[in-house]
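General statements about sequence and structure are easier to judge against a single worked case. For one protein, we set the task of working out the structure tokens from the amino acid sequence alone. The sequence in question and its structure tokens are set out directly beneath this paragraph.
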Amino acid sequence: MPLPYRYNLSKMANLKDLEYYGHINAACSIAKEYCEKKPDNNKLKLLSDSLIGIFFWGHAQEQDRRLYNKELSDMRLEKNRAITRARKAEAKANELEKEIKKLKQIINL
């Protein structure tokens, strides 16, 4: 059951990213159009530069989230592998302890 849950989170994040890119694309296109019509307007240049800064900030946030989720997933996988190895080692130790008890009983006969 955890896999579909993680999938849904990823799907939601992708939809939000897609919405963000659509909005930023529309805003940048409009700003570019007006900047081309009035290239001497400093306010439009500032608006255009600000939109570009917002785009790069949003992209960096998306990358950070993706890398964080990947690292978290890797850490969980590593933890689960360690738990599995510990359980196998414990089972083997119990098995060997039983064998030692049997051998001690044979020797003490």
Summary: DSSP finds two helices and no strands in the chain.
